[in-house]
Design goal:
It is a single chain. The chain is an alpha/beta fold. The protein is about 45% helix and about 25% strand. Helix 1 crosses helix 5, helix 9 runs antiparallel to helix 10 and helix 11 crosses helix 13.
Length: about 475
Amino acid sequence: MTPADTVIRVLIIDDDEEDFFITSEYIKNIKGKTFVIDWSYSYEDALKSVCDDKYDIYFVDYYLGAHTGLDLMKEAVLRQCEQPMILLTGMGNSRIDLEAMQAGAFDYLIKLELNTEKLERTIRYALDRASSIKTLKAKERKFRSIFEQSRDAVFLTDEQLFFKDFNYIATELFGQTAEELSGRSLYDFFASLEEANFVRNKLNSTGNVEDKEVEILSGKGERVNCILSLARGKDANDYVYVQGILHDITNLKIAEKVTLQVEKLGAANRLVRTLAHEVRNPLNNINLSIDQLLQESNSESAQIYLDIIRRNSKRINDLISQLLDSSSREEENILEKKPLQSMLDDCISTIMDRILLKKVNWKVVYPDEPAYILADESKLKIAFNNIIINAIEAMKEEKGELNISVSSQNGHHLVAIKDNGTGINSENLPHLFEPYFTFKRNGLGLGLATTLNIIQSHKGSIDVQTSLDHGSTFILKFEGA
């Protein structure tokens, strides 16, 4: 509602001065309101006044010389100057009435039927409607800004989760252009069929999915860890829609994994140093006793047993030294600009005997340009060797397929080492890089733990994709140099 003491600015756009005076007199007779009424007979001047938002309401005659009032309204809408405009005509015409409403007119009045009462009601309704529209548009701009500027993927879909509207971040997360994403369903991007079915069943049964951790497979082939929230709604026309938010937690998951691994390594290292200290004290006493007994005993059989004890004591001592070496603080890396291709070729040459003995088929795929990184070459070769040797040992003789590839992506270089071996059980996967965790009978479980340390010291990361009885793929990611 417009307050009674508000001055209402009115512009009458009419090329007939007499009609202007008649209309303005009707408006001036409206009681309880104060009006400032101006006249414009020029199409261009009138259009400028509309777009400059100089008036609260505009009365527009249908005939404006070479143009029409409909032309003015359409031009104003094209320029996004949607002010409350009332179309005036000399006689009734249903076609013009319909066109006026479609062009954005708030009302349509016949000049011969004008009177003070009708104009008061028209002005009141038009101003109230204009106020409501302005409020709605302000809210729309506010929420559209939040929608577009959100750092999360925000979207609207239909019941089957086909995308209808989405922000720019959504196109980035899904690795799609706006055109590609339109018409696709969210279900197309779930990395796991199990997760897709869970979301579908949850949405159908409750209408909501709250903070569900899912893995999205983007159009670029990347796996993205996200928190998904969905809520079903219905508009005024009973159209069912779903609004959703996807929060990317990939970096958080990586950071959590790294932090947990560092904590585990720290705990394991402390345990090793404690055990080494506790074991070496009595071991030293045993060795001293052996030396004394060897000097005092003349029995040949006693000498044999004492030699056995000495050898095994040495073996225990060597084992302790090995454990301490693995847990000691690593030396600082000596980094040089090196191509990944040459380092991998050196590793393959070193373990070629293993490949040939097990009759493994192997293939490398490299880009044409060298993939340079900053690396301590000797240490990084140890990491590559550990993974490749594990892959060879996991495959069956004469049936092994080893694929090693290098690729580049967003300023990073990726090394993928893929085998068709036994794969890794999902229960064991979280423990894969833990010290002393091993599948091998005589293994210490230090190979992959050492590998992770080396990769992380190069500011790299390791991702493992595996399926039981179908093999594993180790993906190592490095910053390009």
